[in-house]
Design brief:
This protein has about 190 residues and is of the alpha+beta class. It has one domain: tt1808, chain A (Alpha-Beta Complex), CATH 3.90.1570. The chain is about 20% helix and about 30% strand. The chain has a six-stranded mixed sheet with strand order 3-6-8-9-10-11. The chain has a three-stranded mixed sheet with strand order 5-4-7, with no helix packed on it. Strands 1-2 form a two-stranded antiparallel sheet.
Length: about 190
């Protein structure tokens, strides 16, 4: 008996299926990966962070988008859905469907137990290939902590973190995130996924 063949798809096949799907999937190297749902704390943190940044950006030349806007990493062919994406200036979209962003300046992911290793490892490796990307923000859903990778002029990335009691600056848009606002309403007893 032969082992089952792994199904592979083209980018065009993935996009055709994804645009009709009722759930989100990532795509890389011909494979499609269904994305898991998020828990209460994750959604609270994403909602709070979106609200803070959206309010700050009103009237400015930058915009924030929630996770329904797909991002493509051109160099690797990864299609993914960051929790939040920020664009300054005109959004560059892949095609006339207006659902795949190519030029984020800031990407924000809320970490869960199941995604933390991927978000900090392989995914960040892919994200670093996006030429427009200036900052990558990671927000913990298990404790009040944020981490930031900031791209330097040399092309290297500088790491910094903020813990309880300190504010956090997204330098690319000059927006301060106060931890108590980001984590407002989070129930630490709830499942942090």
């Amino acid at each position: 008996m032969e082992p089952a063949k792994k199904l592979t798809y083209t980018e065009a096949e993935y996009l055709e299926m994804e645009r009709k799907a009722s759930f989100k999937s990532e795509f890389f190297a011909g494979e499609i990966f269904a994305m898991a749902g998020a828990g209460l704390n994750h959604n609270t943190i994403v909602g709070n962070t979106f609200g803070i940044i959206w309010t700050f950006l009103k009237g400015k030349p930058c915009r924030i988008f929630p996770s329904d806007l797909r991002v493509k990493v051109d160099k690797s062919g990864l299609y993914t859905y960051p929790d939040l994406s920020i664009v300054c200036g005109k959004p560059v979209l892949m095609d006339d469907k207006f659902d795949t962003l190519l030029n984020p300046v800031v990407l924000i992911e809320v970490l869960s137990k199941s995604t933390e290793d991927y978000d900090k490892g392989s995914k960040f490796s892919f994200y670093r290939q996006i030429e427009s990307l200036q900052e990558y923000i990671l927000i913990s859903s298990e404790s009040p902590k944020m981490e930031k990778f900031k791209k330097l002029e040399t092309g290297n990335w500088l790491f910094s973190e903020s813990r309880e009691g300190t504010d956090f600056l997204i330098e690319s848009i000059d927006c301060v995130l106060e931890l108590n606002e980001v984590y407002s309403g989070v129930d630490w007893r709830a499942d942090a996924s």
